[in-house]
Amino acid sequence: MAKTNKIGYVFMMIALLMFCCPNLASAAPIIERSVQIGSSAADANNISYDFTFTVPSSTNIKSVSFTPCMTANGVCGAVAGFDASLSTLTSQPTNLGDASGWTADGTQTVLRLKNVANLTSPTALVPTVVKFSGVHNPSAINSTFYIRIATFSDNTYTNLVDSGVVATSMAGQIAVSLAIDEQLTFSLAASTVNMSTPTVSSAGTGSSSMTVSTNAANGYSISYSGATLASGLNTITPMSSLAASLPNSKQFGLNLMQNTNPIVGASKTGLGSGMPSAGYNTVDQFKFVSGDILAATSIPTNTNTFTASYVANADGLTPAGIYSTVLNYIATANF
To answer: 20 to 30 A from 320, CA-CA: which of 2, 105, 161, 289?
Structure first.
């Protein structure tokens, strides 16, 4: 008799559970749950909430809710500041059934979506993605809350199919700043150039290189200044206009090119946008005008290396001596 009573009590408990809590009796746990929130700023408006989760069964679903609570289970305490009443779907969800027809149905306290006419069941154990926008974040900083996910077989959020919980928080924001100063890098590879000796049939040559870069908004310019080659009162005539090298004459000039007559110099190298200026950008043509701009660019640029090619000629009447000069190279950033 006692055994019969015990069986009766068991049936009564099952019946009571199904009568009071029919949803809980059939729900299975949603797995692989996550949420990506567009901003962690407390009380921020118009924020995206992107959910990814996997339903364990292929039961037809017509509505889904995402309820923020202060605890993972038990009575759901409302999360202060959270507001989904203006939420919308960023896109149609994936793997909830039909590919269209889903609409946001949020309230102030719950993110929801539904599809009254959904006829297709989700594929079990395949990730589902639901993306909302227009959500107002909770107001408390550094607070953890829990979003309870539930799927329903009807469009009134009543007949529970599966459920799960994902934890998240409004950890606030950290403002990170970085100051990048105005920069100009300019260097000369050598301070001395010993040119070869010219003859009445060949030019004297030499070269030097310079490297430049800048983050200036309007780039840079490189200019040079100085006098022509001189030995005491004797001078080598500067090439005041663009001209070719002419042995057995008095000439001194330069360019920024790789020349073949005479063989001297190199083309520019590097990833920068700098270019030799007019008057100094023609192969086998040379010039010397103190104050001229040798190279320039009008935008911020990575490094370029330019080679200055020097050419000097002397005729048979040029007095013997050591001819020299000091040239000043100046790089100016255009901020």
So the answer is: 289
